[in-house]
Amino acid sequence: MLMGRLIKQANNTINQRMNAFAQQYRLTGTQMSVINFLDHFPGNTCAQREIEREFDIKRSTTTVLLQRMEKKGLVTRQTSPTNQQSKLVSLTSSGEKLIPIVNDYIEQSEIRLIDGLDGDSIKKIKQFLREVSERLNG
């Protein structure tokens, strides 16, 4: 089987499992990923551009994603006080309550993903995936 197809199948499986889990919280897997990402910033706040870069998605796609999260009361978006063209995205208290659930799910998924692999294999797979992404983007 082609390498690209195997990567796509693995990605689809990961996304399907995450979406199935997220559904019980009326979320999507991508929304869970955004909550996890924001948790790594002071005050659970970052520039919208950081989300665009992290998930390699267009500005318009990010805007729609964040608008849906705003409607659910998970995030707020405000104009940056230092750059009028930049939006700051922050988790609300409702979004923050989901952090332990989201992080636990992601941690358990990572454990299942690497179960049975030795440290050297994990390192090589991560390096390979980084290189694939760089080659295809560059």
Could you walk me through the main structural features you see in this protein, from its secondary elements to its overall organization?
This is Transcriptional regulator. Keywords: DNA-binding, Transcription, Transcription regulation. InterPro entries: HTH_MarR-typ (IPR000835), WH-like_DNA-bd_sf (IPR036388), WH_DNA-bd_sf (IPR036390). It comes from Limosilactobacillus caviae. By secondary structure, this protein is mainly α. The chain has 7 helices and 3 strands. Helix 1 packs across helix 2 (29-38) and helix 2 (29-38) packs across helix 6. It is globular. The relative contact order is 0.12.
The shape is globular
Strand order of the largest sheet: 1-3-2
Name the beta content range: 5-15%
Mean pLDDT: 95
What is the number of helices?
Answer: 7
Domain HTH marR-type: 1-134
Keywords: DNA-binding, Transcription, Transcription regulation
InterPro entries: HTH_MarR-typ (IPR000835), WH-like_DNA-bd_sf (IPR036388), WH_DNA-bd_sf (IPR036390)
Protein name: Transcriptional regulator
Summarize the structure.
The chain has 138 residues and is mainly α.
How does the SSE layout of this entry go?
Elements: H1 3-23, H2 29-38, E1 45-47, H3 48-55, H4 59-71, E2 75-79, E3 87-91, H5 93-97, H6 99-114, H7 119-137
Antiparallel strand pairs: 1-3, 2-3
Helix pairs in contact: 1-2, 2-6
